[in-house]
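Tokens in:
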């Protein structure tokens, strides 16, 4: 990610936080805008062209999306194209990020992070489903319909919207990669970070509470725990937060011992 994109992304996120009236309609429109811009090199090029005047880029947004989208969505899109992006792909990514964050804001009481994680595990355990969602064959809209059938009534509307929208615009990304990114963005929007905890046996609520408290103190932010039972861990825990891995499992210690013995 270039420095221009880093600054632009911070600005668009700040603008979203300052906007009232964010709901699922806005989130859905932002996802639709990301798809439309991502599918049109002409449109994405015009909106990300730093040589063009900001007013000209905003006019493109108004002309294309003004007649069909809400004023809130158009304002967020206009703010995004006001910024300078390192590439057109970065602009599309940022609009998709705004959509994910908007979905998180629309249902503050829904456990969207946990729902996204559970669906990611479902995909990992079902190769046929992963292939169906990741395939370039067939209509992308059919993938959205499939997600709505799978998650309808089983997950919040925010989670269903996020997943259904992402699978319709993979842009060379794997399904689980998109879900992991979405989980992190939802947590960040809510002032949290996500930790994946792997253990040989299910952890008790008291253990999870102590672990969450310890990690929160270490990282200075509230930590949302996603748990995975994996018998190969043998004993202890393996915790991953972004690129940080805390491996206190017996299997890890045995592997270290074998390496030392091997010289």
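Residues out:
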């Amino acid at each position: 990610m270039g420095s221009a994109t880093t600054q632009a992304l911070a600005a668009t996120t700040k603008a979203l936080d300052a906007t009232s009236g964010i709901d699922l309609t806005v989130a859905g429109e932002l996802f639709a805008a990301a798809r439309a811009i991502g599918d049109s090199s002409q449109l994405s090029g015009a909106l990300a062209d730093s040589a063009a005047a900001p007013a000209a880029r905003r006019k493109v947004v108004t002309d294309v999306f003004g007649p069909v989208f809400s004023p809130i969505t158009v304002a967020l899109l206009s703010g995004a194209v006001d910024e300078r992006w390192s590439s057109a792909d970065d602009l599309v990514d940022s609009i998709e990020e705004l959509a994910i964050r908007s979905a998180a804001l629309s249902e503050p009481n829904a456990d969207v992070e946990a729902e996204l994680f559970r669906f990611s595990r479902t995909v990992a355990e079902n190769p046929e489903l992963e292939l169906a969602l990741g395939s370039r064959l067939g209509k992308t809209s059919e993938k959205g319909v499939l997600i709505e059938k799978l998650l309808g009534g089983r997950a919040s509307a925010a989670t269903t919207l996020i997943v259904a929208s992402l699978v319709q615009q993979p842009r060379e990304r794997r399904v689980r990669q998109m879900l992991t990114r979405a989980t992190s963005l939802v947590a960040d929007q809510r002032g949290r970070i996500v930790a994946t905890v792997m253990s040989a046996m299910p952890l008790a609520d008291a253990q999870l509470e102590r672990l969450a408290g310890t990690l929160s103190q270490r990282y200075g932010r509230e930590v949302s725990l996603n748990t995975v039972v994996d018998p190969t861990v043998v004993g202890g825990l393996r915790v991953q937060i972004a690129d940080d891995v805390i491996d206190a499992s017996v299997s890890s210690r045995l592997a270290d011992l074998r390496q030392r013995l091997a010289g």
